[in-house]
Amino acid sequence: MSFEDSLEQLRRQFLHALPDKKKQIITLWISLRKNWDAHMLSAVYREVHNLKGSSETFGLSDTKHIVDKLELQLKGLLNAPAPELPTIKSLDTLFHQLLQNNRRGQPSAPVVEAQMQQSPYKPSKARHEHHIAIIEDDNNVGVMITKQLREFGFSVQHFLDFTSFLVVQNESPFDLILLDLILPDWTEEALFEAATEFEKNNTRVFVLSSRGDFDMRLLAIRANVSEYFVKPAETTLLVRKIHQSLKMSEKQPLKVLLVDDQQSMVDYFSSLLRSHGLMVKGLSSAEQVLPALEQFEPDLFIFDLYMPEVNGLELAKMIRQLDKYTSSPILVLSSDDTMQNKVSIIQAGSDDLISKQTAPSLFVAQVISRAQRGHDIRSSASRDSLTGLLNHTQILVAARRCYNVAKRINSQVCIAMFDLDHFKKVNDTYGHAGGDKVLLAFAHLLQQSLRQTDFTGRYGGEEFMLVLPDMQKPLAIAKLNAIRESFSHIVFVEGGVEFKVTLSGGLVFSDECEEFQDCLLLADKHLYEAKRLGRNQLVVSPSE
Q1: CA distances from 64 to 41, 104, 307, 334 (A)
Q2: Which residue intervals of 490-535 are DSSP H helices?
Q3: CB atoms < 10 A from the CB of 6, how many?
Q4: What does the alpha-carbon distance between residue 205 and residue 510 come to, in Å, rounded to a whole number?
Q5: pLDDT digits (tens, 9 = 90+) for 251-290
Q6: How many Cβ atoms sit within 10 Å of the Cβ of residue 149?
Q7: Span 151-183, pLDDT tens digits
Q8: Cα 487 to the center of its chain, rounded Å
Q9: Model confidence pLDDT, tens digit, residues 319-334
């Protein structure tokens, strides 16, 4: 079902339920008239306010016009004594109009607008879905670059001329092109023109040239190419730039936790955000939030302001008391976007108030920008600054969680400890710059080679932890051995000198341990056994 069809279905569901909703509000009003009570008045006001928000969202202008007047009058009575008869009759008239109001309202322009706008956020592809073309007429150079990039897990195809490349590109476009500027069948000017068109169509272009002079670089800038490398291009730098250009460090879409007591609003805003590539967990009860956080770690919270029992401000204050989310962005939804409410939500620790009648394109843009900021905050707090992998604390948290899940559902998780062989010698010989280059290369290889459901972390120094949930022993051993083998073939260059580095690893599986701590000790034991046996190998427990 398309997003447009989904919204149309939500609108029809809301219209179908609207008469009963109006009758429910009228019933509350009749009870209030018979026995004026502050608690009952608050309930009537809350229901009217919620109906206002729904009417705005689904474009029911006639209903909204009546509800606006009702809300204004009821709000004036919240902290006042029981009203006089003229006020009661005025409200009777409005409630009667609400009940008799037909359903002429159609979805307003903003719902259509959500379809017209190009998504401002697109989640990155899965790692193995990126395809790279190398256009290099020197076969030896092209084969060497292709081999090195494939060691990092990239899907790479080498072309000796531009014409044969175009045949494939026109049928199945590549994500990134490594382009030599001296080719037998196209001029430099024509290649730069083609590069400009590729960039316009979101195919990144990296220039590989034997020239690094100002004039040639200026032509590349004017062609809007993404990167410029002078031959011979250093593989580790090339890989890092590819990861940055294709935004491959993102493992998941931006995540939003949405809470609104009206299920219709939860469904509407969830569908809207999901259609723009975000992952949304929608809840209709504030009490569901804390249990949800055990499995869902949002980049952004969105709370409805007026909810029964627990309102959005109280929920925001509660989230701020959780150490993990003290800096996470919180947005509050309301039909009442007065300055007083804006000040109140900021004082409660939220970031901003968004009106429910905000145009969908603007709403989505605000959510994405705040969610991205929340993601960056979480990443900086949980990731190693050099490699971008999880830091020591967070990889342990991930490993323990996966171990507990595996034990609970009787599945399997592999926990592996890797260590770079003779890394001190690398630092002593090639300096810390050379050592950092090796660490980064291994991080990129892991990011490229493993699944999005796997976890990788820098355990400390040159030691790394890998967590592979729901993977059987033979497959896990084969996968990690392939990573070890690929890494041993990567050629590093520092100070004009080429060198290689190998890995040792120890693997353990959850069914071998009674406690999580036992798994850590056993994996560490296997790692040191691999080093004792000569390094550049994996050690696992012997099969029974």
Answers
A1: 20, 12, 19, 14
A2: 516-532
A3: 17
A4: 44
A5: 568 899 999 988 888 888 888 898 888 999 999 888 999 9
A6: 21
A7: 777 889 999 999 999 999 998 899 999 999 889
A8: 28
A9: 888 888 888 889 888 8
